[in-house]
Design a protein that fits this description.
The protein is of the alpha+beta class. It has helices at 12-24, 41-45, 64-74, 90-98, 108-115, 117-126, 142-152, 178-193, 250-267, 297-304, 308-316, 395-403, 455-459, 485-495, 518-529, and strands at residues 5-8, 28-34, 48-53, 78-80, 102-103, 156-164, 167-172, 198-202, 208-217, 222-234, 237-243, 270-280, 283-290, 333-340, 352-353, 365-369, 376-377, 384-392, 426-428, 450-452, 469-474, 501-505, 508-514. Helix content is 29%, strand content 26%. α4 packs antiparallel against α5.
């Protein structure tokens, strides 16, 4: 191998994950870090560590000159960007290669093409990948938008071309609101991404979020490693992922998998990538491609037996794909849960010192985390601090293992996954949670309050029709659709003695209240949305 030392241009659990893969391969590692991460586990374990700036990411993990300088000082052969930060920055990838350092990632031109959602959609369409009905490219003015809307039909979504995480995205259900919401989407996109380009897509009412993992060698060969189901989301952010998807057939997997693998081969794609789709009524619709390793890559590793980080490094080293398509076999089922350091009601980041850390364990239980007892979670970065991944020979056994032991982090999920007959369960808030774990679905702390289980989405059960409950839907374009909205509503209801249950789904949150209290609940919701409040 020509790669003997890798600089890891990231932090947290993914930096530790890359470090471990490198050491298994006999490759030395260089950890770059901000002053806030001096005590991070990956910094302690790396062969070398170099401080690249103060805590703000713009001055450290996004500081390209400092990272390149660290690579040159340490004489690193390659840079692995992980995910987030500079992982999909075409400029950074080009600079790395210009300095004759190996970039462990896709070709810069592919990062550029797929990073622009309008260009990515056109490229995908040209490669034969099915698209969501909508505009062929960017929408320039309201006149063009109205014409596209008439052809596409309502409801529709106005999306930022450079967007992500729900920003610059507006759901339009009424033609009269198109101009206003399009203007809002442009403004949000300009503020968040520096680009107010938007496009239009048909709104799919109840889709699942399915993504295919692909690998290419950059020489016209590519394979797919099956799919992941990432339908359970909060504010357009994934919170739980599983592989394979429980809703698609082997025939659909083979058909779409071959389609994306062939497309990647035709592009000459290099390294790891993820092609994301919305899936509804047996149809797949392309939404975007991520030209990097995904947070949820461990579930694919669990069901294929492949080390995806190792594969990235081998491909970057110029070696061929280590597996042929006919050798890819999905065995069993895996689920990943993201664990965040957040306030349980407002979901605001909750940094601080970890007084005691006892990770889950046991057969087929994996925890990817940089936590340790005494570590202080810094307030400057993303709040995800761990990923819990479990494996089972089938989905039922996987869910059973996910329930885990009540004294381990997995135990917090056990009551959520208890009612398999209906696909959901409720948990009294007063029952408590294991010390140090923040549940992802706790919304109110009041007598009788409860939360809907994650399994409601996992099972795909339409609990809107569950006897005794009324459903209130909060749209993606709601004035109240901000961080902590559902928590605010649930808390307000709980103060009036109304049990509040919430399911977070793609584009919308669904609030469930007792049928006989629905009028009171709506009155409280209307009060919260009153501009005079």
């Amino acid at each position: 191998m020509t790669i003997n030392k890798v600089l890891i241009a990231n932090r947290g659990e993914i930096a530790l994950r890359i470090h471990r893969a490198c050491h298994e391969m006999g490759i030395k590692t260089v950890a770059v870090h901000s002053t806030a991460d001096e005590e991070a586990k990956h910094v302690k374990l790396a062969d070398e560590a170099i401080c690249i700036g103060p805590p703000p990411a713009a001055q450290s993990y996004l500081n390209i000159p400092n990272i390149i300088s660290a690579a040159e000082i340490s004489q690193a052969d390659a840079i692995h960007p992980g995910y987030g930060f500079l992982s999909e920055n075409e400029k950074f990838a080009s600079i790395v290669e210009d300095h004759e350092i190996i970039w462990i990632g896709p070709k810069p031109e592919h990062i550029r093409t797929m990073g622009d959602k309008v260009a990515a959609k056109k490229t995908a369409g040209d490669l034969g990948i099915p698209l969501v009905p909508g505009s062929d490219g960017a929408v320039g003015d309201i006149g063009e938008a109205r014409k596209v809307a008439e052809e596409t039909g309502y409801p529709l979504i106005v999306k930022a071309a450079s967007g992500g995480g729900g920003r610059g995205m507006k759901l339009v259900e009424d033609p009269d609101k198109l101009e206003t919401l399009m203007s809002q989407a442009r403004s949000e996109a300009k503020a968040a991404f520096g680009d107010d380009t938007v496009y239009i897509e048909k709104y799919l009412g109840n889709p699942r979020h399915i993504e295919f993992q692909v690998f290419g060698d950059g020489e016209g060969n590519a394979v797919h490693l099956g799919e992941r189901d990432c339908s359970l989301q909060r504010r357009h952010q994934k919170v739980l992922e599983e592989a394979p998807s429980p809703v698609i057939t082997d025939e659909e997997r083979a058909r779409i998998g071959k389609l994306v693998a062939d497309a990647m081969a035709e592009m000459g794609y290099r390294g790891a990538g993820t092609v994301e789709f919305l899936y509804e009524d047996g149809e797949f619709f392309f939404i975007e491609m991520n030209t990097r390793l995904q947070v949820e890559h461990p579930v694919t590793e669990m069901v294929t037996g492949l080390d995806l980080v190792r594969e990235q490094i081998l491909i970057a080293d110029g070696q061929p794909l280590s597996i042929r398509q006919e050798d890819v076999v999905l065995r069993g089922h895996a689920i990943e849960c993201r664990i965040n350091a957040e306030h349980p009601r407002t979901f605001a980041p909750s940094p601080g010192k970890v007084k005691q850390y006892h990770p889950a364990g046991g057969m087929h239980v994996r925890v990817d985390s940089g936590l340790y007892s005494g570590y202080t979670v810094p307030p400057y970065y993303d709040s995800m601090v761990a990923k819990l991944i479990v494996y089972g020979t089938n989905r039922e056994r996987c869910i059973m293992r996910l329930r885990g032991d009540q004294h381990a982090p997995a135990g917090a999920l056990r009551p959520m996954l208890a009612d398999e007959e209906h696909g959901f369960a409720t948990i009294p808030i007063g029952s408590g949670w294991p010390s140090g774990l923040v549940p992802v679905a706790t919304f109110a702390e009041a007598e009788g309050a409860s939360v809907i289980a994650l399994a409601a989405i996992l099972k795909g059960i339409g609990i809107a029709h569950q006897a005794g409950w009324a459903k209130i839907t909060i749209g993606a374009d709601s004035r109240l659709d901000d961080v902590g909205l559902s928590a605010r509503i649930a808390t307000a209801l709980a103060e009036k003695g109304i049990s509040a249950n919430i399911v977070a789904a793609y584009h919308r949150d669904h609030l469930f209240v007792p049928w006989d209290r629905r009028d009171e609940a709506m009155a409280i919701l209307n009060a919260l949305s009153d501009p005079r409040e």
